[in-house]
Amino acid sequence: MIHGITRARVRGWVEQGLVRVNGQPVKPARRLAPGDEVEIVLPPPPPRRELAPEEIPLSVVYEDEWLLALDKPPGLVVHPAQGNREGTLMHGLLWRARGYTPHLVSRLDQGTSGLILVGKAPEIHAALQREGMEKDYLAVVYGRTDLPKGRIDLGILRDPADLRRRMASRTEGRPSTTLWERLAESELSLLRCRLLTGRTHQIRVHLQAARMPIVGDPLYGAPGWKGIGDLALAEICRDFPRQALHAWRLGLVHPVTCEPLEIRAPLPPDLANLLSRAGLTFP
């Protein structure tokens, strides 16, 4: 099976006559024999839809002539996709942009809050991608950690059981590294996580693999709230509506001025309340 292509889609191509074996159209039940030549004429992609600007409130934490940094609230989708064609952060950026086309340097999952960096020109975007930056996240996980800090080196690939939605950690897959440090702990632990690579769902997958699932994570979480002795805190964790993950800090060298630049996003109210209820102090 071609990576990312479902059986249903391939079957549709066969039924449309887009797949030929030895120059002849075939039926879905056709079995291949050694030496058969398979030809697939892929259908043209659907026409690209231009994004229409929408007036969406955006929280700006830094801006200059070349860069823009936003504090994304949890629940806001960053870029249009299936099921979210309108009302995304990108729609709001297009409304706000005057005289430039925004280029996203970083992205966040819908349930993750915090910093998103935007370049105001393609060369700025390219320079930031080339030079890289420090990306620090805050994560609230279940339980206490055995060590004060650690490093997770695990490959990341599409989860064979759910190719569309989930990723998985394996010894194979794209090389991926996450550094973590414990900042505070009670019945939950507050971690600072730094990405050394930028894979899809990387922190969420790596912490799950290290048996430190993030509170509220709908894909990689665990019912860790059942083991919490504080019943009020257990209820908050059970009902927490998203992964307790926040893109807190970016550290970079400015691509034009060459000066060091540090940008931080304050804790959102839901995460601040969770920390307060768990007795976790954010330094």
In short:
The protein is α+β, with helices and mostly antiparallel strands and 283 residues long. The protein has helices spanning 7-15, 89-96, 122-131, 202-209, 231-239, 269-278; strands at 19-21, 24-25, 38-40, 60-63, 67-72, 103-104, 113-119, 134-142, 149-153, 155-158, 167-170, 177-185, 188-195, 245-253, 260-264. The strands form 3 sheets. Strands 4, 5, 6, 7, 8, 9, 12, 13, 14 and 15 form a 10-stranded mixed beta sheet that branches. Strands 2-1-3 form a 3-stranded antiparallel beta sheet.
Question: Which features does this protein show?
Answer:
283 residues; Pseudouridine synthase; 15 strands; single chain; 10-stranded mixed β-sheet; alpha+beta; 2 domains
What would you note in describing this structure?
With 283 residues, the protein is of the alpha+beta class. The chain folds into 2 domains: 7-40, no CATH class; 60-278, Pseudouridine synthase. The chain has helices spanning 7-15, 89-96, 122-131, 202-209, 231-239, 269-278; strands spanning 19-21, 24-25, 38-40, 60-63, 67-72, 103-104, 113-119, 134-142, 149-153, 155-158, 167-170, 177-185, 188-195, 245-253, 260-264. Strands 4, 5, 6, 7, 8, 9, 12, 13, 14 and 15 form a 10-stranded mixed β-sheet that branches. It is globular. 31% of the residues are buried. The model has no long low-confidence stretch (mean pLDDT 89).
